[in-house]
């Protein structure tokens, strides 16, 4: 088959940005996570790199597949190259953001930068993401339930209503399912709140870190620290209980108040905090906050692409 025909409708830029966001997030020296300096016993940096590459094809066909099917296909592709759940949360965040970006691009929204507007892409995404989430139906729910079962994320536990591990997917829109889970999961909360944490505090933290002169890997790590100081990581809370979530948040806030990656004192506290998080295996891995950082990085890449097109 002719390659051009075979790849018709494939969004190479979307695929590349999704892969790049995952790689940049994994490489950054974030506290408590797998990164360029630390592996886990059951997951290495190479696992995260392979996972990033695996999601390229599904995300390239995001507009054709839709959000739910993209999530499932991306998880399925990941499971072919790694043995553990490396990116379910990331995929759940990147798919709606990617769809919002594709819609903005396809209709040449004046605020997306195609007509020289100086308005930022995050403002356009804030408007568009709500419409994307409202459009998700029961078929998206079915695909997401399949993806979660396939990924087998740690610390899921049991819930009384619509338990993903105990029953078939409910015939209701995905947004309704996410709203029900928002109280116990940061990923679901982004769906409920139109990605407010990603497009608000998170993206502002990354931009501020870069403006302070940090290189991108350190800016990502510093932004990750800021998020940890603002919200409890739901992976930690699900696995160990809310008291540990509060303790990690409290310690992160202290490290941030000492300057984090921006001061010598802060860097010393970063190293001690990182060492503490890595004790007892990696049970205090702030993995959900890392997922949020991947989404924030994707927005950063999208806005950089917009700025290039303005030139």
Q: Give the SSE order as H and E letters.
A: HHHHHHHHHHHHHHHHH
Please report the distance between the alpha carbons of the first and last residues.
37 Å
Q: Biggest sheet: strands, sense, closure?
A: none
Question: What's the overall average pLDDT, rounded?
Answer: 91
Instruction: Output the radius of gyration.
Output: 19 Å
Number of helices: 17
Based on DSSP secondary structure assignment, what is the total number of beta strands? Answer: 0
Briefly note the structural class of the backbone. mainly alpha
- Percentage of residues assigned to helices: 55-70%
Query: Percent of residues in beta strands?
Result: under 5%
Spans where pLDDT lies below 50 across 5 or more residues: 1-6, 109-118
Estimate the global geometry from the Cα principal axes: globular
In words, what does this structure look like?
It is a single chain. The protein is mainly α and about 300 residues long. It has a domain at about 10-195 and about 285-310. About 65% of the residues lie in helices and about 0% in strands. It contains 17 helices and no strands. It has helices at about 5, 10-25, 45-55, 55-60, 60-65, 65-80, 90-105, 120-135, 140-150, 175-180, 185-190, 195-210, 215-230, 235-240, 240-255, 265-275, 285-310. Helix 12 packs across helix 17. It is globular.
């Amino acid at each position: 088959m002719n390659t051009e025909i075979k790849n018709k409708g494939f969004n190479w830029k979307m695929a590349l940005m999704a892969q790049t966001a995952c790689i940049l997030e994994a490489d950054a020296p974030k506290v408590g996570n797998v990164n360029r300096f630390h592996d886990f016993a059951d997951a290495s940096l190479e696992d995260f790199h392979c996972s990033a590459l695996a999601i390229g094809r599904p995300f390239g066909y995001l507009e054709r597949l839709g959000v739910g099917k993209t999530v499932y296909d991306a998880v399925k592709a990941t499971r072919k190259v790694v043995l553990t759940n490396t990116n379910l949360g990331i995929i759940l965040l990147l798919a709606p953001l990617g769809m919002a970006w594709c819609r903005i691009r396809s209709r040449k929204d004046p605020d997306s930068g195609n007509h020289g507007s100086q308005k930022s892409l995050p403002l356009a995404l804030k408007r568009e993401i709500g419409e994307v989430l409202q459009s998700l139906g029961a078929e998206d729910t079915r695909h997401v339930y399949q993806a979660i079962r396939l990924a087998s994320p740690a610390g899921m536990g049991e819930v009384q209503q619509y338990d993903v591990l105990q029953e078939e997917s409910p015939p209701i829109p995905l947004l309704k399912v996410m709203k029900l889970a928002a109280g116990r999961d940061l990923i679901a909360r982004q769906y409920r709140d139109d990605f407010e944490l990603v497009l608000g505090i998170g993206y502002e933290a990354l931009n501020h870190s870069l403006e302070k002169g940090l290189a991108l890997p350190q800016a990502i790590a510093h932004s990750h620290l800021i998020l940890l100081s603002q919200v409890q990581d739901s992976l930690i809370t699900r696995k160990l209980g809310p008291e540990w979530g509060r303790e990690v948040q409290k310690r992160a806030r202290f490290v941030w108040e000492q300057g984090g990656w921006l001061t010598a004192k802060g860097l010393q506290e970063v190293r001690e905090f990182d060492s503490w998080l890595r004790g007892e295996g990696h049970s205090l891995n702030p993995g959900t906050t890392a997922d949020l950082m991947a989404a924030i990085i994707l927005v950063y890449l999208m806005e950089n692409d917009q700025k290039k097109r303005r030139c």
